[in-house]
Amino acid sequence: MNWQIFRNIEKHSRCPPRILTADGDDVENITNEQNDDQQCIGYTTLSSINQQDSIRRMNEMPSFFFAETLKYIYLTFTDANEVVPLDEWVFTTEAHPI
């Protein structure tokens, strides 16, 4: 189940890769499948997922995406004792060990 969640994040929220000049100008959209997302870099939020034809990518990436979402996915796929012994630590809702 967790692997499917990650695959869906990659499929629906990841912005298409780009080649940028040194000053940040967009030279080429490597994958031309999402031409409406010209300002999108990294991952993005979706405007609505209730209707397939109305889903649009927003030009924003919440700060908690890396700090929480990807951290939880990472912790899900690692051996618990390799990272943090879970019998000694508890994670907050923001995925911080205490």
TrEMBL record:
Keyword Disulfide bond tagged: yes
Protein's UniProt keywords contain DNA repair: no
One GO MF term: mannosyl-oligosaccharide 1,2-alpha-mannosidase activity
Gene3D superfamilies in alphabetical order: 1.50.10.10
Pfam families membership: Glyco_hydro_47
Keywords from the named record: Calcium, Disulfide bond, Hydrolase, Metal-binding
Cofactor(s) recorded in Swiss-Prot or TrEMBL: Ca(2+)
Binding site for Ca(2+): T93
This protein's GO CC annotations: endoplasmic reticulum; Golgi membrane
Protein family membership: Belongs to the glycosyl hydrolase 47 family.
Top-level taxonomic group: Eukaryota
Name assigned to this protein: Alpha-1,2-Mannosidase
Signal peptide (from-to): none
Involved pathway(s): Protein modification; protein glycosylation
Native source species: Streblomastix strix
Swiss-Prot/TrEMBL GO biological process terms: carbohydrate metabolic process
